[in-house]
Amino acid sequence: MWANLPRILTLVVRGFVLTLAVLTAVVVIRTVTFPSYQTSPPECKTTDPDFIPADEERLARFTSAIQFQTVSYERGVGTPQELAKFVRFIQKSFPTVHSSPMVRRDVVGNYSLLYRVEGSDASLQPYMLASHLDVVPITEEANWEAPPFSGQLKDGYIYGRGTIDAKHSLMGSLEALEFLLSRRHQPKRTLYLAFGHDEETGGHFGAKVIGDVLTQRGEKIAFILDEGSPVGDGLAPGVSKLLALVSVAEKGFLQLRLEVNEEGGHASMPRSESAIGILSKAISKLEDNPHPNMFGTGPEARMMEYVATEMTLPYRILASNLWLFSPLVAWVYSRKPQTNAFARTTTALTRFNAGVKDNVISPEAVAVIDHRIHPMSSVEEVMEFDRKVINDPRVKLNVINNRPPSPTSPYGKDSPTYMMLQETIQQIYPDALVTPTFMVANTDTRHYLNLSSAIYRFNPYVMTPSDLPRFHGVNERISVQNYERVMNFYYHLIVNMDKPLELKRHGHEDEL
Ligand SMILES: CCCCCCCCCCCCCCCC(=O)N[C@@H](Cc1ccccc1)C(=O)O
Ligand SMILES: [Zn+2]
Ligand SMILES: [Zn+2]
């Protein structure tokens, strides 16, 4: 036996080296032969006669739109008077849209707006562009560089709540329609514009009612485009080009109210555990035990494939070989909040309330957890996981609201609408890569799921990592250049939707 040891060791080392050599060869071959999912930009670019300038008049209209304080606070608690004023402002600001015989406008659920622009060819299925009128409340007002409802122009940026979420797309799509209609252009395909008034609190009285109205009309929609993921500049690890993120799905959510009720009493005679202490331990366990990393099991894996050939080294090697490196990429993604959101169901602690007086032991403690559910998980799985982690029957888990992850819309070269969207994006951003992904937050599209099987969520502006906290945060702003791109994106989209939506063959022939 001992005499054979050197022989055995040699064989083991040889086996190891051989395996490593084979693996390296496979990795190298896959990296250099990995198919490209990108297509060259279409010839039609944003050229002069085809271009909506962000001139003084349009910027003034956008600034005014920001000045309406259409804040949604809680479900059913909004700002009705501001919404009514904003609706009147929209009517006055786009005279051609509002006087055209081709346009029917319905005010739905008191403040939400549904426009139908009649196409000349009734045989074509309508499509829908969506956004919302409301905004989230202001935080840290003192830290804003310009007042949050000023719409002030400063160093090439328009500041204010709603500039990126989502009055840019509401005003941008109306500008595009006004521009087209004032040039006597009648679209071939009927088009809806849908603007809910309470998206920020779930859309129960706005988009929900719009969805019901369209369902009652028996309407089937060819495709829907709502607010969503942006054109990323430096957002995705290993991608140095602009990356247009088209969300073909969206995470689910589960909002939970955690409650502990214990005996209260005089602070001079405390028991060993209090409601506050019990709840604190529970939520601390939830923070210490994130939901499992599911990177590579859902649409996020396709995102890596779509950009693999364009990535910088060593990411190119990793993305072309997810069969081997998926755990490594999963780890890389889990390190930053904006990429971690793609890797797992997230857990955010959003409220924590207890106590009424310094010397009174609170009999009750309450916390709210906001989970965003990975497309490959479910509400039940998340609930089960939390129960196991907390492992304390004194902590009651009440569901406030929930939605399963959305279905995935078609994408790739066999989906004419996705390809049309890709072409339109490339008209505005000729050098950008375009990739399907999923939305880490939620949109009004949850109320439109039965109207269309092709639902996309995309914001046609560029965002850097430092812009992400501006969403619902301080110093929300959009650059004038980005707002111009937004208007022109919708303009090109409307024009492109009149071209036949046939299947176009692009690039390589792999099936997607
Ligand atoms: C690869 C790395 C890419 C990183 C990309 C980051 C993309 C960030 C996109 C952020 C989009 C924000 C869109 C906001 C929409 C929004 O706020 N929706 C709300 C809707 C809602 C309201 C009440 C209850 C539940 C849900 C929300 O999701 O909270
Ligand atoms: Zn929004
Ligand atoms: Zn929002």
TrEMBL record:
Q: Molecular function terms in GO for this entry?
A: aminoacylase activity; metal ion binding; peptidase activity
Q: What's the catalysed reaction?
A: N-(4Z,7Z,10Z,13Z,16Z,19Z-docosahexaenoyl)-L-phenylalanine + H2O = (4Z,7Z,10Z,13Z,16Z,19Z)-docosahexaenoate + L-phenylalanine; N-(9Z-octadecenoyl)-L-tryptophan + H2O = L-tryptophan + (9Z)-octadecenoate; N-octadecanoyl-L-phenylalanine + H2O = octadecanoate + L-phenylalanine; N-(9Z-octadecenoyl)-L-glutamine + H2O = L-glutamine + (9Z)-octadecenoate
The Peptidase M20 dimerisation domain, residue ranges: 248-388
The reply to whether Metal-binding figures as a keyword in the UniProt entry is yes
Any one GO biological process: amide biosynthetic process
Active-site residues annotated for this sequence:
134, 199 (proton acceptor)
Q: Record's InterPro entries? A: Bact_exopeptidase_dim_dom, Pept_M20A, Peptidase_M20, Peptidase_M20_dimer
What's the family?
Belongs to the peptidase M20A family.
Role description: Secreted enzyme that regulates the endogenous N-fatty acyl amino acid (NAAs) tissue and circulating levels by functioning as a bidirectional NAA synthase/hydrolase. It condenses free fatty acids and free amino acids to generate NAAs and bidirectionally catalyzes the reverse hydrolysis reaction. Some of these NAAs stimulate oxidative metabolism via mitochondrial uncoupling, increasing energy expenditure in a UPC1-independent manner. Thereby, this secreted protein may indirectly regulate whole body energy expenditure.
Designated name of the protein: PM20D1 protein
Q: Which SUPFAM superfamilies match?
A: Bacterial exopeptidase dimerisation domain, Zn-dependent exopeptidases
What pathway is it annotated to? Lipid metabolism; fatty acid metabolism; Amino-acid metabolism
User: What PANTHER family is this protein classified in?
Assistant: N-FATTY-ACYL-AMINO ACID SYNTHASE/HYDROLASE PM20D1, N-FATTY-ACYL-AMINO ACID SYNTHASE_HYDROLASE PM20D1
What cofactor(s) does the depicted protein rely on? Zn(2+)
Does the record carry Nucleotide-binding as a key word?
Answer: no
Keywords, ordered alphabetically: Hydrolase, Metal-binding, Protease, Zinc
Residues binding Zn(2+) 1: 132, 165, 227
**GO CC annotation terms, alphabetical:** extracellular region
Q: How is the cofactor bound?
A: Binds 2 Zn(2+) ions per subunit.
Q: Could you say which residues bind Zn(2+) 2 here?
A: 165, 200, 472
